[in-house]
Amino acid sequence: MAQTIIGLDIGSYSVKLSALTTSFRSVAWTGFREVVVPKAARENPESAAADVLAELAKDPKYGGAFVVTALPGDRAMTRFVTFPFSDPKRIDAVLGFELQNRLPLTVADMIYTFQVTGPTPDGKTEVFAAACKRSTLSTYLAAVSGSGLDPRIVTLDTASYLNLYDQLQSAVSAERPTNVSGDKDAGEKDVGGLGTVAFIDIGHKTTKVCIVENGRLCTARSIGRGGLAVTKAIQLALGVDFETAEKSKHENGQLPLNNQGFAGQGGPPPTPLSRAIADAMQPLVVSLRQTIQAFVSERKRDLDRIYVTGGGARLDGLYPWLEAELGRPVERLPVERLEISRGSNAPQGADVAAKGIGLALVQAAASRHRTTLDFRRAEFAYAGDFEFVKDRLRSLVAMAAILVIVGSAWAVVKNRSLEKQLADQKAQLESFSARTLGQKMSSFSKALKVLQSPPDDGAEQDLFPPMTATVILERITGFQSELNREAVTPTDGASPRPAQPGGPADDPPPRLRNRVGGGIQPPSRPEVARPAGIPTAPAFDPAARPSAIRNPRTFPQPPVGGAPFIPPGATSPLPGAVPPIGMPSPESPSVTPPVPGDPSSAPAPTAEGAPAGDSASAASKIELSNVEVDVFGDVTITAETHESNVNGKEIFRQRIESDPCFREVKRRDIGEVVSTGRHSDWVRFEVTFKVRCPKAGEVEGTDADKRVSEKADKPTAEEEEP
After folding, report:
1. pLDDT at residue 16 above 80?
2. Do 144 and 82 belong to one domain?
3. Residue 498 CB burial class (10 angstroms; 0-12, 13-18, ≥19)
């Protein structure tokens, strides 16, 4: 006897029904219907679905149909769990307690289901588990049931696309997968089959992503962005009401990509409508890239195909635009080429029937690889499945009494350990909520409600650092290079400092400590501009110097202007040896000791406390010795300069403060005098600031420019002194 199976796809924009008819040896797709949900009822589409089911119950063709529906992915939590055993009964017995340690729910508050995905390389069993609150499932069933067609199976919508894998397998068995460039050999994987496939269903409020690797469920995710975000973007860009924006999207919605390419490369320029659609789709593309990259990093294998379906896939130009954004082949999910569709004409608008067909295939058993998730268990089990227990009521009552006694004994034994686990979970929740939500929360239900609530525009940006540690260091060293370049530029009458052979070509790079991403090699210092005619110092080669000279502690520092540099125990200067900074070099003709009584040989007068001659510009330089970066917290810069360079320290702080992303810039003089072979009478100071870039709607640089201009108008303490 033939059986009718209805896959009920309840979306926030429309309710879609796909009917399959099963006989002894065949399964056929026999019907499809789509009912648009009124705007006033889109917050609770389950009520509209109940009305559709009540109407179908009156039709003799669907009166006794087997209904399969799915819980939305944004109302459930999923995890991949591994077990050292593969027995489904043992997994079911311990899975709840395993999920209790991974989810903000207790065993008593959640209803869960699972599916064994397969063995792991180390011999364990991988399980895909889905859980939701009991109250969530109860509310969902109460809204859908009572229409005469009570859903017998409630699965997870993000996993229902697994049922389509075998249906598409035979449809593309003669094809060879290709990469984006069209090279079939480069993209050839599992020739004659699908390989690794990603199903993307762009809905009204959410987008479903399901990745299947050779029939094995690997990823099932729900992204909180869809066609509604596009409609709101059009409404804001064009300044029209919601209904007009939605109508423009359906009738004229197009992404700025056509057969000739992007605008500026032979194609027409994008319109305000297409530009608004593209801007609204960019956050979704970012989430899709992250999902695909996470799969590739974990499984060490790339995607072979990407199938796109759903109402959002009806946008003109979506497939080539999405293929260019993701860098992988993207095509429409061809429901008319499924095995169950052969010999039948696809009805109008059936391009969005993929999820409904996948739901119906759960019961049709027409696929070798299909999902077995079902939330209708325990007290939510389908009532018709328990008719056979009436004759076994006494044995069931006795068994229930035994279970109650055993459960009570177990509860007494585990009471203390459960209390400790609860305290640990609350502590973890407080830490997680303070770090992620910005407020410490000890209530699991409140934290879950905040996590399940739709985020505000731009809220996802708070989960990522405003900029990376490498960018922060690049900007800091850029300010330092600009300041040092101004310091070494010779003024009128000043001669540049000659290069010393074998000396360091530039200041040593600062050490970078990144508290988030570990150590990062800082970018190379820009070349300091030199006047024309002045030779450039040769690159520093530590091997060119004797090993004893590398450590300045092994030699006493001779006085400035003394005899040529002779190491202890030597009778003559070392060949090629260069004395420490501050000592004259016998090979440098431009550096000669002053002759008594000769005014021409006297050093030029300098500012009080500053070094004389060609070291005057070096005294105005600032060197970074240590940079500690916390992209979510403070950035601490430890720098050194000559003790007379007071203005340079303040100018360096002002340069940092001029960056719109650097806030609360403060300087502190450490006061420690640094005297080494390279420096004499230098001091250390510290600059700290926080990283926070302007968000959408803020004028970049306004606050920083205002602070810099206000401080530039005020004379410094050194300028006020007579």
Report:
1. yes
2. yes
3. middle
